[in-house]
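Cross-check.
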Amino acid sequence: MPEGDTIHRSAHHLSLALVGRPVLRYWARRPELLRFRRDRRVVVAVEARGKNLLIHFDDDVALYSHMKMSGSWHIYRPGERWQLPEHLSRVVLENERFVAVCFSAPDIELLTADEVKRLPVLVALGPDLLGPTFDMEEAIARLRAATSRSLVGDRDDGADDASDHASDEAARNGSDVGPSEASHDGRRDRSIGEALLDQRVVSGIGNVWKSEMLFLSAIDPFLPVSGIPDDSLRKLLRDTRVLMRKNLETAVRTTRFGPGGTLWVYERAGEPCYRCRTRIERERQGRPGRSTYYCVRCQNVPRI
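Predicted model, tokenized:
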């Protein structure tokens, strides 16, 4: 499931392969992706914004892609055999040295610069944890505003099962994302586990990073955002940024560096916690529900 670190890593590799080189062959499966000819156009930049990827050309046109559950970008040498079947390809960009192929991504658009500026998913994005100028105070302010009425939008786009994928679709369509408790002004205060997945709050965090970093921060994922001090939120985001940046250099997402598994809690329901040996729990969180993995003891989660 591509999260912010995966997309930033893809952007880096695509940049090395494409930037400064003219496109010799451009192919797209859908007619709307052929609205502007790309042959002989030069790629001038590749950037990630949260979980969104943009390939910019020298005529102020950009190829936008969002991987959601199953999409991916691959880079090959000309003539090299592809690792995935051709029928899954969506876009192909080829220059004299490399072939970049986008597989299975459901969201791809060829946009003008003005259209990029107006693209709703980009306009609404919160501060990018892996961006060069991450605005911590803006992120804290958005977390504080993360009630079910004030911020409802695109949450995590990866899913650990079909039900989670359905949850993503509902969130993208503006469905109410479930809350925890009512605040003093009558609004419903979302839990920290829900708020972190809202890309309008902070962009780049998905279900894996949510579960892992709340565990490492010893924070109850069901605790309302209003119950967490600003200093704790800053530390959570700062530590997440550091570890996500470290993962830009690894092929496998890793939060646990040592013998055994690479993740502390994610997809380990029923297994013993590496720290205290308590059984790792998995519970649906929010409306519609997303899987949250946690340790009752290490994260001080009240037993019901």
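The first strand starts at residue 25 and ends at 28. The helical segments are 4-18, 113-118, 120-123, 136-144, 162-172, 192-195, 207-216, 230-247. Passed to J.P. for a second look.
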